[in-house]
TrEMBL record:
<feature type="transmembrane region" description="Helical">
    <location>
        <begin position="349"/>
        <end position="370"/>
    </location>
</feature>
<feature type="transmembrane region" description="Helical">
    <location>
        <begin position="310"/>
        <end position="329"/>
    </location>
</feature>
<dbReference type="InterPro" id="IPR041489">
    <property type="entry name" value="PDZ_6"/>
</dbReference>
<dbReference type="Pfam" id="PF17820">
    <property type="entry name" value="PDZ_6"/>
</dbReference>
<dbReference type="InterPro" id="IPR004387">
    <property type="entry name" value="Pept_M50_Zn"/>
</dbReference>
<keyword id="KW-0482">Metalloprotease</keyword>
<dbReference type="InterPro" id="IPR036034">
    <property type="entry name" value="PDZ_sf"/>
</dbReference>
<dbReference type="GO" id="GO:0008237">
    <property type="term" value="F:metallopeptidase activity"/>
</dbReference>
<dbReference type="InterPro" id="IPR001478">
    <property type="entry name" value="PDZ"/>
</dbReference>
<keyword id="KW-0479">Metal-binding</keyword>
<keyword id="KW-0378">Hydrolase</keyword>
<feature type="domain" description="PDZ">
    <location>
        <begin position="185"/>
        <end position="256"/>
    </location>
</feature>
<feature type="transmembrane region" description="Helical">
    <location>
        <begin position="400"/>
        <end position="418"/>
    </location>
</feature>
<feature type="transmembrane region" description="Helical">
    <location>
        <begin position="170"/>
        <end position="194"/>
    </location>
</feature>
<protein>
    <recommendedName>
        <fullName>Zinc metalloprotease</fullName>
        <ecNumber>3.4.24.-</ecNumber>
    </recommendedName>
</protein>
<keyword id="KW-0862">Zinc</keyword>
<keyword id="KW-0812">Transmembrane</keyword>
């Protein structure tokens, strides 16, 4: 059990960290201020600050986030009706908005807030205690909220997500899923360099399978299947699937001679959704593996694309099932389901755990690109709208839609988690 818990923490932490780091990497290069980088949700259990970003680990393993200034998802700590204290510079600009009593600032002003804008015009307006008159103070280029014993920088207008160009916004949002795809590639690449990549030469034939039935042996090199030239291992899988399970001719080389034999591939079906199966055809052998410089790169790329194709088909099938009435929450896995899968996979060895993590990373990338508000894909739609019509979508409408999307996602997460608990533990 301890091994499973450790593996789950590593897998979950890696997937979320890489995804959110992708967002933050491009956000910071676009000049967007990122006040917080969080792994997990809920109460903080650990945190540290580096430069302007607070890095936190939170209690609930249900995701993570990067808080970006001006992304429409954060709530300003100052609102009309609040009583605050402010510190001004020589130009009567606000340098500190004091929201606690843990700092001993000199020469500060008490203010009852009447109006505040921290996105466009950057000001706070209110009734000053010293003269009971209404004043409007501009926020200095470098200003801070003073809260809970910490200084939190107020993002200047030019460092807010909402004021960046559409292309910069797109890269920032797309980078999360992109980094998940890159992570899958890197994991598979490292595995390929460590274990070697499969070749077209047979290492072992499986009992009762077509390869054994037609007399293939260790050391045979497959050169052709069904008239298709075989140069690499993936060519074998593609050629077998093109046969459709029909009797097929295969050519192999043995001791410098070419042998031609006829076989019927064995059909296998893997369930990828409730009503959808993936069909493959097999010859029944294990390939030899070899180490090279270039082949692992090609292999890792092909496997990442293959995972993407399988998962995309499954996601499309799942979405289609909503309209056909065949949808089931068993099609989805939440943190509990992922934990259970980790428990199963980790028992089969570290190699399978790494491959499964790569597949899960691709899955996370694809799911986040779904056009659902609050997910990356939904927010990208607003950016595309802005790029096409040369103006941002209505801010209030966008905020309401994203908030509704966030509520929808949270409800789905709760339902999926409860379904996982019932499915695996009750």
């Amino acid at each position: 059990m301890l091994t499973t818990i450790i593996a789950f923490i590593i897998v979950f932490g890696l997937l979320v960290s890489v995804h959110e780091y992708g967002h933050m990497f491009f956000a910071k290069r676009a000049g967007i201020m990122c006040p917080e980088f969080a792994i997990g949700m809920g109460p903080k259990i650990f945190s540290f600050r580096k430069n302007e970003t607070l890095y936190t680990i939170r209690l609930l393993p249900v995701g993570g986030y990067v808080r970006m200034a001006g992304d429409g998802l954060e709530e300003a700590p100052v609102k009309p009706g609040m009583h605050i204290r402010i510190k001004l510079n020589e130009q009567d600009e606000i340098t500190h908005v004091i929201l606690d009593d843990q700092h001993k600032f000199q020469q500060i002003e008490a203010l009852e807030v009447k109006k505040v804008d921290l996105e466009e015009e950057m000001f706070i307006e209110g009734i000053a205690a010293y003269d009971d008159a209404r004043h409007r103070y501009t926020i200095a280029q470098k200003a801070f909220f003073v809260e809970n014993g910490s200084l939190i920088q107020i993002a200047p207008r030019d460092r807010q997500f909402t004021h960046k160009k559409p292309f910069q916004k797109f890269l920032t949002l797309f980078a999360g899923p992109l980094f998940n795809f890159i992570l899958a590639f890197v994991l598979l690449l490292g595995l390929a360099y460590y274990n070697g990549t499969p070749t077209t030469t047979i290492s072992q034939v499986a009992d009762g399978m077509a390869a054994q039935q037609i007399g293939l042996q260790k050391g045979d090199t497959i050169t052709e299947i069904g008239g298709k030239k075989i140069n690499r291992f993936n060519d074998i899988k593609n050629a077998l699937n093109e046969t459709g399970g029909k009797e097929t001719e295969i050519k192999v080389t043995r001791d410098g001679k070419t042998l031609t034999k006829t076989f019927t591939p064995k059909k296998s079906e893997v369930k990828v959704s409730k009503n959808q199966k993936q069909t493959d055809y097999h010859l029944g052998f294990l390939p030899t593996k070899e180490r090279s410089l270039v082949e692992p790169i090609i292999y890792a790329g092909e496997e990442t694309l293959r995972f993407g194709k399988v998962i995309f088909v499954a996601v499309v099938g799942m979405i289609s099932s909503i309209f056909t009435g065949d949808f089931s929450f068993d099609m989805l896995n939440g943190p509990v389901g992922i934990y259970k899968n980790v428990d199963t996979v980790v028992k089969t060895g570290i190699t399978n755990l790494i491959v499964w993590t790569a597949a899960l990373s691709v899955n996370l990338g694809i799911m986040n690109l779904l056009p659902i508000p609050a997910l990356d894909g939904g927010r990208i739609l607003f950016v595309i709208y802005e790029a096409i019509f040369k103006k941002p979508a209505n801010k209030k409408a966008e905020t309401v839609i994203i908030a509704a999307g966030a509520v929808f996602v949270m409800i789905i997460m709760v339902l999926v988690t409860w379904n996982d608990i019932q499915r695996y533990f009750l």
